[in-house]
Amino acid sequence: MRPLLEAYSANDEGPISDVRRELATQFHLSDEELAERLPSGLARTFDNRVGWAATYLYRTGLLTRPRPAVYQTHQRGRDVLQANPERVDLSVLAHFPEFEEFRRGPGRRRRSTVVVSTTDETATPEERIDAAYQELRQALAAEILERIHTMPPSSFEDLVLDVLHAMGYGDGQRTLA
């Protein structure tokens, strides 16, 4: 996460795609390494890791997002860079209440049982898989809500009609009133 935060700190603001290319160059990644996919095959590993890093930094308030897919460093991010010259990782982000809130998800209370981290080596594989699933689900829900909030009204109306049609309501034909 530190290289991503440094890149935005140096460039002030920019699209994530530009920073992703900059990081690939900085780390001397080959075309084969860039083409490597997650075990699911759904996404490229490097793109996925950069995306998650940006999400974590944004949700913790170290980056801001003036427009979709465009980030910039917040003063809090510059402070974290200065305070952590070696590494910025989940253990650094865990000091921020926003990070814990993000990991828990909106409107959810902490379970009365022990909360498991995906990196907790004492947890069973099933518990780590469940923790990873919950984290992905919460991140997806937050991203969808954010996109909906930035939609123009006409696009929101289209989305509602598409959802209603997918649920079996109506015939999918859009008519003008």
Describe the structure.
The chain has 177 residues and is mostly helical. The chain has 2 domains: 1-95, Orthogonal Bundle (Arc Repressor Mutant, subunit A); 105-177, no CATH class. Helix content is 57%, strand content 7%. The chain has 9 helices and 3 strands; from the N terminus they run H-E-H-H-H-E-E-H-H-H-H-H. A 3-stranded antiparallel sheet has the order 1-3-2. Helix 1 packs across helix 2 (16-26). The longest helix has 25 residues, at 125-149.
Brief summary:
This protein has 177 residues and is mainly α. The chain has helices spanning 2-11, 16-26, 31-35, 45-59, 75-83, 90-93, 97-104, 125-149, 153-166, and strands at residues 13-15, 63-67, 70-73. Mean pLDDT is 82; it is low at 108-114.
Key terms:
mainly alpha, single chain, 9 helices, 177 residues, globular, 7% strand, Arc Repressor Mutant, subunit A, 3 strands
Which consecutive residue ranges, at least 5 long each, have pLDDT under 50? 108-114
Helix tally?
9
Number of DSSP E strands: 3
Number of domains: 2
Query: Given this structure, which CATH class of the largest domain is correct?
Result: Mainly Alpha
Describe the strand arrangement of the main beta sheet, using strand numbers. Answer: 1-3-2
For the biggest sheet, the summary is: 3 strands, antiparallel
| Radius of gyration over all CA atoms, rounded | 19 Å
Q: What structural class should be given to the helix and strand makeup? A: mainly alpha
Helix fraction bin: 55-70%
Counting copies of identical and different chains, the oligomeric state is single chain
Mean pLDDT: 82
Strand residue percentage: 5-15%
| CATH topology (fold) name of the largest domain | Arc Repressor Mutant, subunit A
CATH architecture of the largest domain: Orthogonal Bundle
Order of helices and strands: HEHHHEEHHHHH
